[in-house]
C-alpha cells in the first residue's frame, strides 16, 4: 500500500475540510431518512464517488488519492460523527483494494485498482462464515483447482457491500489437509458471476441502509489468475496484513460515534431545563459530559498513534488493537451516556441519538471482538516486556 510516511500535507488537510463540509451539507440531513427506511443510499454513494472516497488510500499510481492512514482516519471520524453506516461502504472496499495493492501481482493491480479508485468497481471482504468469525482458520469454503480455474463451494455471512458491490476478496481453503491450517488458505479476487449468489440482505438492529448480506457459492468458477499474489497458501497472512488498517478504521468509526454523541448531548444539555436551570448546570450531567469528552480525546490520540506508525511502515498491531478497543468502547460509552442525558426523548426516532446508540455496539464486535483484542494487547505487552 502506498501510504506516504509524512504528516498530512496541505492538500490532504484540505480534503478533510471538504469532507467535513459535505458531511454537514449532504450526509447529516439524509441520515435519519435512510436509516429508518433501511434503504441503500444510492445518491450518497454517487457523491462519495465524486469526492474520491473510494480511492482515498489507493496509491496515486493507480488513480487513487494516496492519503495517509491518519488523514483517512480523520475523514472516517468526520463521516461517522454524522452517520456511521456510509463509512462501511468505502471501508470494506478500501480494505480489499489495500490487499490487492499490498499483495497482488502487477497485472492484478492494473486490472482492479484504477476502477476501484473511481468507485466504478466497489468491493467487499469475504471472510466471515456462519461458523467462523474471529477464528478464521475454521472456514469451510473450499476452492478446488480445475485447469486454469478454481471451483468454489461454500458460504459467507455479514459481508458488507455484497448486494450493490461488484466483487469480493474471498478467503478460501485451497488445501484442506494443510497443517497448520492457515497454510491451506488463499484469497481469490471474486467478481460476481454464475454460482456467486447473494442470498439476501440481513436485517440489523443498527448499521442499517447498508447492504450486509449472506453469500453462497455453488460451483462458482474463478480464473486462476485471480489468486491474490499468484501463490496458494498465503491467504491467512495476506488477511492479517490488512487488519491494522481495518482496526484503525473501526477505531475511527467508534470515535466518530463518540464525538457525534458528545456534540448532540452538549447541545441538548444546554437547551433542556429542569428544576429551573439548564441541565448542563446540574453536576450529574456535567460529570457525564466530562467523561465523554475525555474518552473521545483519548481514543483520537490512540488512533493517531497507530495511524502514524502505519504510515511509517512500522509494526503497529499493538497500537491498532489499543486504538480499536478505545475507539469502539468510547463510541458505546458516549452513545449510552448521551441517551441518559436526553432522557425519555432518547427513545424517540425524532432524535438522532437513538441511531448512534444502535450503531455503536457493532464497533465493539466487528474487526475482532474487543474480548479477542484484549488478549492480543496482553500477549503483545508480555512479548515486548519479558520479566
What layout of secondary structure does this protein have?
Layout: H1 10-37, H2 42-51, H3 69-82, H4 85-103, H5 106-118, E1 123-126, E2 142-146, E3 149-160, E4 167-173, E5 185-191, E6 196-201, E7 212-223, H6 235-241, H7 243-271, E8 273-274, E9 277-278, H8 283-311, H9 317-342, H10 353-365, H11 370-384
The oligomeric state is: single chain
Structural class: alpha+beta
Note the gap between the termini. Answer: 36 Å
Q: How many strand elements?
A: 9
Compressed to H and E, one letter per element, the order equals HHHHHEEEEEEEHHEEHHHH
Number of helices: 11
Unreliable segments (pLDDT under 50, ≥5 consecutive)?
1-7
Widest sheet: strand ordering? 2-3-7-6
CA-based gyration radius? 21 Å
- Beta content comes to 5-15%
Characterize the biggest β-sheet: 4 strands, antiparallel
Mean pLDDT: 94
Shape estimate:
globular
Helix coverage percent: 40-55%
What report would you give on this structure?
This protein has eleven helices and nine strands. With 387 residues, the chain is an alpha+beta fold. The strands form three sheets. Strands 2-3-7-6 form a four-stranded antiparallel sheet, with helices on one face. Strands 1-4-5 form a three-stranded mixed sheet. A two-stranded antiparallel ribbon has the order 8-9. A hairpin with a 2-residue loop joins strand 2 (142-146) and strand 3. The model is unreliable at 1-7 (pLDDT under 50).
